[in-house]
Amino acid sequence: VQLVESGGGLVQPGGSLRLSCAASGFTFSSYYMSWVRQAPGKGLEWVSDMNSGSRINYADSVKGRFTISRDNAKNTLYLQMNSLKPEDTALYYCARDLDGWSAYDYWGQGTQVTVSS
Predict the structure, then answer these.
(1) How many Cβ atoms from other residues are within 10 Å of residue 67's Cβ?
(2) Which whole number is the average pLDDT over 93-102?
(3) Distance CA 113, CA 117 (A)
(4) For residue range 99-117, what is the model confidence (pLDDT) as tens digits?
(5) Which residue of 17, 32, 107, 108 has the fewest C-beta atoms within 10 A of its own C-beta?
(6) Is 54 in contact with 29 (CB distance < 8 Å)?
(7) Bridge partners for 38 per DSSP
């Protein structure tokens, strides 16, 4: 199993970024997938998840600004992040979730998102 995130970077407040997570080594369409972030000096924070169909969940802190999606044909998970705030600065991980209740068994290496003017 391999998860590889990309798309992070430095963006000004109010800007947008699109993160990608390329998955391999398992049947991607069969699993819940999640985005989890870790801000400097803080613990892990769940951001969003979705199953292989249409069930989607968001943390209150990102609801209305972030959109999770997936392309099962490309084995890729996405996170479109709009109206970014400095408090969104974090290392963003994608993770495979065994049951949709944060039972993560595989993680990517993370991609850094920095929101600053």
Answers:
(1) 15
(2) 91
(3) 13
(4) 888 899 999 999 999 999 9
(5) 107
(6) no
(7) 44, 91
